[in-house]
Design a protein that fits this description.
Order of helices and strands: HHEHHHHE
Helix content: over 70%
Number of strands: 2
Strand content: under 5%
Largest sheet: 2 strands, antiparallel
């Protein structure tokens, strides 16, 4: 009887150690995901600020009906996820490039050129951060689906996370972004 009790105790200890180990691995993934989201958030804020500054520079360099560019300031009052904000900013960046290509006077402005260069640099940053985020999400989602870690995922109600592709994503499971 004591031997049976000792075996049950050892099995429970092994299960408990496995559960803690798997739970900690989930926590590591969650920390990495949060870190990637914070980095993306930082670059998106930088892009927003650059586009906001470009409005003043564009208005001072050329006469332009910039109601579409001014609508970027309305983003400040919206509560958007990083996914939605990235899509919105991408549209404004496309408008920014269209205006740049149509007006030679802007290309002569030093401040506009600096903003343009910074926006281009931020594009490469956001591409790298999307890839990093999606790599972590791939690992996390596959860990959730694998046995036996699926047991811990179900116990702790961990759900799969969407990829950050910058396109037609649903924003339901994402945290809100507020400038």
């Amino acid at each position: 009887m004591i031997l049976y009790g000792l075996m049950v105790f050892i099995i429970l200890c092994i299960f408990f150690i496995w559960y803690i180990s798997t739970f900690n691995k989930f926590q590591t993934y969650i920390i990495r995901i949060n870190e990637a989201e914070a980095n993306i958030d930082s670059v998106l804020r930088k892009r927003f600020d650059l586009l906001n500054k470009s409005i003043t520079v564009i208005k001072s360099s050329i006469e332009l009906e910039s109601e579409t560019l001014e609508s970027i300031t309305n983003l400040r009052s919206k509560k958007l996820s990083n996914f939605a904000l990235d899509r919105e900013l991408y549209e404004y960046i496309n408008e920014f490039h269209t205006i740049r290509d149509q007006h030679e006077a802007l290309k002569e402005s030093e401040s506009f050129t600096k903003i343009d260069l910074s926006i281009t640099e931020s594009e490469s940053e956001i591409i790298a951060l999307r890839k990093y985020y999606n790599d972590i999400i791939t690992d996390y989602n596959s860990f959730i689906r694998r046995f036996p870690s699926i047991l811990v995922a179900k116990i702790c109600s961990y759900k799969q996370k969407p990829y950050f592709d910058g396109k037609d994503m649903t924003d339901e499971d994402t945290e809100d972004f507020k400038l």
